[in-house]
Structure formats: structure tokens, C-alpha cells
Amino acid sequence: MQSDRSVDEVLSTAKLAGLKLKPNAGPVQVLKFSPALNSVDYRLVELPPQLQDALQTGEKVVFRGDEQDEAVLCSQTETHEMKVVDLSNTMLLCPRLSTPEDGSFKLQSPEDAVERLDVCASVSSYYELRPCRPRLTKLKQMLKLTAYRGPEAENDHVKLYSLEDLLGSVQASEDELLTALQHLGAFETNGKWRVLDIQYEEAVFLSILNLLDEKMWSYESVPLLECYALLEELYPSFVIKHCLEVYGNKCLGEGIATYTGGKDGHYCLDAVRVCQFYAEYLLRAAGRFNFDEFIDSWQQSVPSGMKTTLDQLKGVALWDLDTRPRVIWSFSVNDLPEDPPARFAKLFETRSKWTLEEIEPFINDLSTEKISSNALLLKYARMSTDSSGQRVFNSKRPV
After folding, report:
1. 203: helix, coil or strand?
2. In sequence order, which residues have a C-beta less than 8 Å from that of residue 245 and are 6 or more positions away?
3. 51-63: pLDDT as tens digits
4. What is the separation, in whole angstroms, between the first and last Cα of the chain?
């Protein structure tokens, strides 16, 4: 092994190499290769500005994913996928190397001393971080396995998940995870996150809607306390309240006592959400439904004062008006793959040609700040014009 060189030896070598070392030009740094030079213990990650700021301000930034997943890096608000980028040159990692950008660099003269530094590793690639959509398939699976079916169906042997448990398995930032839980109609009880079993949710909400007819309540002012009193023998109060929150919004009730000393009051049911609920309820077990019969049954089912429209079926159902009889069937965006290539493959497997108006409700949730729904169509679909002159989209790949 080569012995450590003195200052004079280093300066002599520099002179032989034709280097003129000026005073205050910075310290002399002699690099020595570590025995672990080819170690894989080190990785380089290129941080985008927002993640660099997060780290500098002390915000938690974590890698997420199980062993079989491709890792993602999450801040409080965003998820970033990690892609390996190969370098044309090998980079040497030296922890204490000084550069002219360091404040004290030029205060040192080459004659002062020799700094001996170890090159601890060499790398020929780095990870590039790209913003991506949260990966929520696992979240849906975990919640489905623990769906709440009523107190009599609870099983102490079934593992339930807290927010920390979900963050440990789901590849999403905390903010994105909480947004997804709200979108999926999840609720927290006893520190665990659950969703209602679909049939149980239908039973609870239909019982609430039946009270509107029986008590002649307006759907714009449903009293929470009276729902508790009338349905308490059938369903837990937290389930009743959750259904009202999923399909409505809090409103101020006049002269209403509160259940817990808060502002529970009344709920105003959202007409679009309620109409979509009835559409899904009617179509779920029906297979292909006669379109005209469905439209009549649907309008008759919703509470008085609500008006059903075809716009409410976007992302919920598909229909074919060219067949005889005309038909409609359940086709929910929530049941489609979240991976864009798989999503488009499923869409074109279901229907070979789509108009822009037809396909948009089924791809809008795939768009991000970086890629719009139009960009997704350009990437995964081919545009053409049908015999009527209407613009349609079909698959770029054989289906």
C-alpha cells in the first residue's frame, strides 16, 4: 500500500504535472480508494426542488412499498416513482471533499497541509424521481377484506388496519391516502379504517330513504337525531351518520338539539350522489337492463324533488341505444385497473370505439399535473372519424 505523501511530495508532483498552485487556491486533497470501492451500500438520488425543500425543512420523506413492489418515495403530499438512469462516466463518492463553493475553501493555501480523503464508493447510475399517481389497488383490497357488515358479523380474528398500517403498505403520501379513503367512502372507528360492505350500505341507506317517505321529510333537511332514534335497533349510530355524510352534507337545522354537544343537526342529501346510488343499486344485479324500463324505474325510485339525468350515469354505467331493445348495464370506473395501459385495454375490450364524451369519465381520474386526459388518449388510443363524421377513439393495439 502506498504511504501517505507529505506536502512537499504533493507539490513536487504538481510541479512535474505542470500545475501552478497559487496561494489561497484551496487545500491539497489526496484521494485514496477504499477497499469497499465497489460496494453497493450507496445509491444516488436526484431530488426535485420540492423534495429537497421538504428534507431541508425537516419534513418526513419515506420510501414505501413491499418487497415485491417497485419502491416509491413519498413526501407528505406527493408520491414519486424511482427510475434508474445510467451514467456514461463512473462517479466517485468522497464524503468530505471540499469544493470552491465551500466558504472556507480559498482561505486555505496548498502549503498548509495535505488532506487525505477516502473514496468510499463508485457508482455508474442514479435514481431519477418522477411524480406519479398514488398506487391504490392494495388499499382497495385491504379495505374490501375488512368491510364492515354490522356488529353481529365482527370477527376478532380479522386484522384491521390503522392509518399507520395503511401507510406501511400502500404506496401513497399521507395526504393522498387520506383523500383516497374519503373517495372510497371509508371511515375510522376505534382507530381502524373500514368501508361498509356494499349490501350492508345499501340496506342502511335505503332505510334512511324510506324514512323520508314515511315521515314526509325533505331530502334537503334530514334530521340526524330522529334517524338515530328510529333506526337504532337496526344499525349503529356511527353507520347511520356515515351514510348521511357519504350521500349528503351537513346543514343547519333550526331548533335541533345536538347528539354529542356538537353541530350534528340536519343533513342535506346530494341529488347527484343519491341518483347515482339508485342507478348502481338497480343495475348491480340486473345484468343488461332494458334502457327505457330502467329510465322509468330509476326516476320513480329517487326521492320526490330529485331529477335523474344521463349525465349522472357517467362513470357508473354504459348503454347501447342502437340495439333493439335498447340496453344499459353497470360499468363503474371504480372497478377498472388503475394502471393506464391496463385501463385502456379493458376499455377497448369492452367497446371497440368510444367517443370523447363516452370515454372521458373513465380516464379523467388517471390524469395528473404532468399528463392530461387528452395526452393519455394520444398515447394509448388512435383517433378516427366514423361514417357520421363523429370523432371516435379505438385501440392502438390489437384487442
Report:
1. helix
2. 267
3. 999 899 999 999 9
4. 65
b/e burial code for range 181-205 (CB count within 10 A of at least 16 → b): beebbbbeeeebbbbbbeebbbebb
- Secondary structure (3-state) at 129: strand
DSSP 8-state code for residue 41: S
What amino acid is encoded at 9 in this protein?
E
Exposed, middle or buried by CB within 10 Å (0-12, 13-18, 19+), for 139?
buried
User: pTM score, two decimals?
Assistant: 0.82
Three-state DSSP string of 215-248: HCCCCCCEEHHHHHHHHCCCCCHHHHHHHHHHHE
> Alpha helices of 3-48 — where are they, by DSSP H?
7-16
The pLDDT tens digits for 265-277 are 899 999 999 999 9
Question: Per-residue b/e over 112-124, b at no fewer than 16 CB within 10 Å?
Answer: eebeeebbbbebe
- Residue 107's pLDDT band (boundaries 50, 70, 90)? low
Mean local confidence (pLDDT), 234-257: 83
Provide the mean pLDDT of the chain. Answer: 88
